[in-house]
Amino acid sequence: MQDLMKKIVSLCKRRGFVYQSSEIYGGLKSAYDFGPLGVELKRNIMNAWWRDMVHRREDVVGIDASIIMHPRVWEASGHLAGFADPLVDCLVCKERFRADKAPTADEGAAVTLTFADKGVAKRALEIVEKQFGVVLERDGKDLKGAVAGDRGYLCPNCGSPWLSAERQFNLMFRSSLGATDAMDGVAEAIEQGALEGLAGRDLRAKLDELMKPSAVYLRPETAQAMFVQYDNVLQSMSMKVPFGIAQMGKSFRNEITVEHFIFRSVEFEQMEMEFFCEPGTDDAWMDYWRDERMKWWKKFANEPDKFRLRPHEPDELAHYAKGCYDVEYLYPWGWGELEGIANRTDYDLGKHAKYSGQKLDYFDPTERKRYVPYVIEPAAGATRGLLVYLIDAYHEEEVDGETRAVLRLHPQLAPIKVAVLPLTKKDGLPELARKVVDAFFRRGINAKYDEQHSIGKRYRRHDEIGTPWCLTIDPQSLEDGTITIRDRDTMEQRRIAIDGAVREVEDLLHQEA
RNA sequence: GCGGGAGUAGCUCAGUGGUAGAGCGCGACCUUGCCAAGGUCGAAGUCGCGGGUUCAAAUCCCGUCUCCCGCUCCA
Fold it and tell me: What is the pLDDT, as a whole number, of residue A315?
């Protein structure tokens, strides 16, 4: 199975889909560049998404927001919490909290863990026994018999003493806005002795205070811009709820671990849509978008069965979400996320209303009522989509004892739509072939003229990069004005008129999806 | 974060202290003319990077970077 990933990574580099970032300098961890074919594939995926989510609907409009936003946005959204404070995870209930705000407990003190209900308490009992080898005694929703450790505090949610180490979580990339370096202020403070005697958490807090006036952050998701600009879009476009705002673009996250080639990287591209609807209609819209998005991924796939929907368990839901489905794909290493469709309720608009002091509620003129819309968010990974469709398309088969590698990409996703090949380099065949390829260029169809090496090699080269059709100009073309068109997947050929070649390919291209 | 593996030509890899190699790919020419054909010639390597041991290091030692795998973590 891992062979498959190795082959794909190798093909990506060899044929110009994906390169390691800054490779001549030794490479940069978890950053990748898209080559000439990769950028085509990625754009084709993103354009198909935009076409289906925005252009083919009248209830969704798009925006393209700046990557750097007002820092208060991230305070409101909750992303900034914990940036300066050590965070701790409870290993039992998964709550993440600030160590300095947690309830205190002396080492050795008896501790009782308390949960929302008996069911959750039962699960916690098993976790503690399995992971920490301690058998507690359950009494209803309480667990008794635990002892506080030397940390001096407990989980504020369940009271557990089983906690992760204190860590600074810098989820977001911090930068500074302004031509003067924020470090100047720090240097000055040191010279003036303002940091004298400070240590640990206090020093950290003082430094943050000095950096804060110029601190800005690279967005960790595109979503917040849609909430922040919700009212502008509503007013300027005369939108009526229900409606959606879509956006594609880069996001940045300092992931704890990066893995699986471009699957999880610190810089990645998202395709997100926030759909604003009336509370009470949100469950129906959730079902609608869940099904729409699933259908969308499957329609470009060779193996639709490798996509599935997985509802989040109640205990893995984000704090703001009422419900969430993941679109998952069966990667070579197992099922993994591709898109999340979440019911974010009125959490984000409510938070931004509170932090900005602006009214973000909606007045329905026909129903004559006022409410803060609920939001259904289908948030897809564009870079993950690229990886998924490469894996889905990669195929090897035996042809006359040789292995044929072919990328069975959906024609609308294929980087190059058509290869134009003179059978040989003689007898005027290249000249005629040039005329054919020019006709495609004039129509804006990404075509490729190729006369290098034997015809068999050229077919295989284009199979490997997913070119759906090869047009071959042979001596007969000079006589009767016909050429052959070869199908990538079946390798079958038929003769068509040169004059109708562009039309033929356009028809094939628009046939599906 | 922990553990394991890897890094030598564009790709896949061989090379265990003594002259840097193969296959494929790439370029030119010839041949050929519909599914990775053949021939001739050619270009291409800071052996990941830095330091050390040695008369001598791709090879041994230390550090470091990057990638892969497993666990952990994260959403």
Answer: 64
